[in-house]
C-alpha cells in the first residue's frame, strides 16, 4: 500500500492522470490489467464488452475498455493464439462500434511505466478481472488503493477536500481474492451474458452505492496489510502447534487416503479387564450404544443384528442394574423390529427424535421440531446428485433425508458428497435443519436433535428417578456419536450428575475423537460387551437363591 501511495504522490503520476482525464473526457472508463496468458480470460472480457455495446446502444460512444496487457511470460503456441484472438476481437469491436473521437477498446500491449499504470487505476470508474484460473491476483487491491488516492494527488489534480471516493469491481469467482471482496460483483468468466450484465451494473449504479462499495473495500484492504497477514499466520501456526509435543502422531491409510493424525497421549485402547472390573463394582449403569459401525460392521450386507449381538443385549438389559439404549440415526421401524427380542432395551431412533424406554412403552417424540416442509427443497437437490452419481440413493426417514454413496466410486462419491453438503447448506440456510456428513452419507435432519441430547435426557431421568448412574458407557464410531461423548463428559462435570460416575466414552477405530478410549472395530466392541454380559450373568448365577423356610425348622 505504501509503495502505491508513494507512486500516487509522484508528480509524473498526477500529470498522467490529468492526461487520461482529458483524453477520455465525457467517457466512462473500464480498466483491465492482465498478463498475456491463456488463463486471464481477456478474450472473454472483450466478448462481454461487445455484447454490452450491442445490447445497450446508449453506451456506444461513451464506454471505453482500456486493457493493459503485460507482455506474455511464455512463448508457447497457446499464448500466441490468445494474443491473436485478443487482437482480432478488439479489432472487430472497434470496427463495429467506433465513431468520431471514440474507440471502444484500447489495447495497451507494450510495457508501460508503473506510474502510468497507477494513473489508469486512479482514473477508471470500474476495474474487471476476468481470469478463468488464477492465484490471488492483486489487481483489485491495487485498484482500490489507487481509487482512494492521496491528499498530495488530490491537490495535484484539483480534487476537493472530503470528496467521496468510488470504485466498482467486477471479479471472476475463480480468483483467490474474490471471497475477500464483498462489495465486488462476482462473475463466472465463461458466462458472457453475466459478465456483460455485471459491467452494465457496475457503470450504471448510483454514486452512493459506488461509494459504499468502495468504503467497504478500502476498509478491508487498509486493515489487512502485510503485518496483519504475518500476525494471523503466526497465530494459526501457534494454534496448530499448541500441545504438539505432548501429542502422538500416527500415519494411517494408504495411497491417496494416507494421512497423519495427532492424538492425545491420554487416548488409549479400552482394556476389557479394566471396564469389566468397574462394571462389577457399580450398581446403576447407563449404557449407550450406537448401531452402524459399532455393534454391526459398516460393511455388512445384512444390516440386521446377528444372534450373538441380540443375545448379549438381551442379557445386559435383563440385569436390573442396567439402563441400556441403542442410540442410532436409523428409523424406529427397523430398529424396533430388529430388537424385538430385547424387551427391556431402550431405543433412540433418528438421532433421538423418537425415544422408547422399552418394548412395552410408547414412543416419545421431540416436541421441538417444526414440520418437514424443507424436504421439498432438499429432495430435488439430492435427486440431482443421485442422477449424476452412479450407485448413490436417497433414504427418506420420518424426520430426515439421507443421501447414501457407499456403493458409488469411493473418490467420486466423496467429492460429490462434499459438493452436495455445500449445496444443501446454501439452499436450506433459512430452514430449521442441519446438514451433516456421516459414514458415506450426507444427512439433513431437524435442528435441535442430537445424540448428545439423548444421553443427557436419559441421565437426567435416571437422576430424577432416584437412580443417579455410577457407571456411564458410551460407544460409537461416527461424527454424530461425538455429541454423546461430549455430552456425557459435560454431564459428569456439571450439576446433572450428583456424583461422578465411572466414565467410558469409547470410539471405534483409532482416530481423533472426544472419547478417551478406542476399540479397534466392531469385533472388539462385541468382545467387550460379551465381557460385561458375562459379568452380569456370573453375578446372577452366584446370587444365593436360597429360600429359608421356617416351617421346616423343628
Ligand atoms: O447412528 P447410526 O446407528 O450409526 O446410523 C447412522 C446411519 O445409519 C444408516 O446408514 C449406514 O448404513 C448404510 C447401509 O444400510 C450405509 O450405506 C451408510 O454408509 C451408513 O452410514 C442409515 O441408513 C442412516 O439413516 C443413519 O443415519
UniProtKB/TrEMBL annotation:
GO terms for biological process, alphabetical: trehalose biosynthetic process
A GO cellular component entry from the record: cytosol
Entry annotated with the keyword Thylakoid: no
GO molecular function annotation: glycosyltransferase activity; trehalose-phosphatase activity
Domain of life: Eukaryota
Signal sequence region: none
Keywords of the record: Glycosyltransferase, Transferase
PANTHER family: ALPHA,ALPHA-TREHALOSE-PHOSPHATE SYNTHASE [UDP-FORMING] 9-RELATED (PTHR10788:SF14), TREHALOSE-6-PHOSPHATE SYNTHASE (PTHR10788)
Family membership: In the N-terminal section; belongs to the glycosyltransferase 20 family.
Name the UniProt record assigns to this protein: Trehalose-phosphatase
Organism the protein comes from: Stephania yunnanensis
Amino acid at each position: 500500500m505504501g509503495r502505491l501511495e508513494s507512486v500516487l504522490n509522484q508528480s509524473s503520476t498526477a500529470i498522467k492522470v490529468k492526461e487520461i482525464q482529458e483524453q477520455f473526457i465525457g467517457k466512462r472508463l473500464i480498466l483491465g490489467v492482465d498478463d498475456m496468458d491463456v488463463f486471464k480470460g481477456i478474450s472473454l472480457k472483450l466478448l462481454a464488452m461487445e455484447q454490452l455495446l450491442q445490447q445497450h446502444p446508449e453506451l456506444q460512444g461513451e464506454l471505453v475498455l482500456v486493457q493493459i496487457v503485460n507482455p506474455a511470460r511464455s512463448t508457447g503456441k497457446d499464448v500466441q493464439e490468445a494474443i491473436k484472438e485478443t487482437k482480432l476481437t478488439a479489432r472487430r469491436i472497434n470496427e463495429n462500434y467506433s465513431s468520431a473521437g471514440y474507440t471502444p477498446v484500447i489495447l495497451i500491449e507494450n510495457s508501460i511505466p508503473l506510474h502510468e499504470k497507477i494513473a489508469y487505476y486512479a482514473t477508471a470508474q470500474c476495474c474487471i478481472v476476468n481470469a478463468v484460473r488464477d492465484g490471488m491476483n492483486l489487481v483489485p487491491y491495487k485498484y482500490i488503493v489507487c481509487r482512494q488516492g492521496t491528499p498530495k494527488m488530490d491537490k495535484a489534480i484539483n480534487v476537493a477536500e472530503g470528496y467521496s471516493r468510488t470504485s466498482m469491481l467486477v471479479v471472476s469467482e475463480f480468483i483467490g481474492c474474490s471471497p475477500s471482496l464483498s462489495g465486488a460483483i462476482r462473475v463466472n468468466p465463461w458466462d458472457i451474458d453475466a459478465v456483460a450484465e455485471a459491467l452494465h451494473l457496475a457503470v450504471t449504479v448510483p454514486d452512493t452505492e459506488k461509494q459504499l462499495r468502495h468504503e467497504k473495500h478500502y476498509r478491508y484492504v487498509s486493515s489487512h496489510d502485510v503485518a496483519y497477514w504475518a500476525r494471523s499466520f503466526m497465530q494459526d501456526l501457534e494454534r496448530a502447534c499448541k500441545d504438539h509435543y505432548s501429542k502422538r502422531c500416527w500415519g494411517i491409510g494408504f495411497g491417496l487416503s494416507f494421512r497423519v493424525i495427532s492424538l492425545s497421549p491420554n487416548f488409549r485402547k479400552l482394556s476389557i479387564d479394566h471396564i469389566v472390573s468397574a462394571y462389577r463394582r457399580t450398581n446403576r449403569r447407563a449404557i449407550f450404544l450406537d448401531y452402524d459401525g459399532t455393534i454391526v460392521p459398516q460393511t455388512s450386507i445384512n444390516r440386521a443384528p446377528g444372534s450373538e449381538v441380540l443375545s448379549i443385549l438381551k442379557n445386559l438389559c435383563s440385569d436390573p442394574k442396567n439402563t441400556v439404549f441403542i442410540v442410532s440415526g436409523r428409523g424406529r421401524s427397523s430398529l424396533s423390529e430388529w430388537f424385538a427380542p430385547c424387551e427391556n432395551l431402550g431405543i433412540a431412533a433418528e438421532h433421538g427424535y423418537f425415544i422408547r424406554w422399552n418394548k412395552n412403552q410408547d414412543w416419545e417424540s421431540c416436541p421441538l421440531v417444526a414440520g418437514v416442509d424443507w424436504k421439498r427443497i432438499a429432495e430435488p437437490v439430492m435427486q440431482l446428485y443421485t442422477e449424476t452419481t452412479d450407485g448413490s440413493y436417497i433414504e427418506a426417514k420420518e424426520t430426515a433425508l439421507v443421501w447414501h454413496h457407499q456403493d458409488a466410486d469411493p473418490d467420486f462419491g466423496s467429492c460429490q458428497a462434499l459438493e452436495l453438503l455445500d449445496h444443501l447448506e446454501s439452499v436450506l440456510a433459512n430452514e430449521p435443519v442441519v446438514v451433516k456428513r456421516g459414514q458415506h452419507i450426507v444427512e439433513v435432519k431437524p435442528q435441535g436433535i442430537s445424540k448428545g441430547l439423548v444421553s443427557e435426557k436419559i441421565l437426567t431421568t435416571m437422576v430424577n428417578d432416584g437412580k443417579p448412574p455410577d457407571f456411564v458407557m458410551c460407544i460409537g464410531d461416527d461424527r454424530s456419536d461425538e455429541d454423546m461423548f461430549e455430552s456425557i463428559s459435560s454431564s459428569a462435570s456439571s450439576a446433572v450428575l450428583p456424583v461422578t460416575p465411572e466414565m467410558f466414552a469409547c470410539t471405534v477405530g483409532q482416530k481423533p475423537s472426544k472419547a478417551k478410549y478406542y476399540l479397534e472395530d466392531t469385533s472388539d466392541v462385541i468382545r467387550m460387551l460379551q465381557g460385561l454380559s458375562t459379568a452380569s450373568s456370573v453375578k446372577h448365577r452366584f446370587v444365593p437363591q436360597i429360600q429359608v423356610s421356617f416351617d421346616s425348622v423343628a
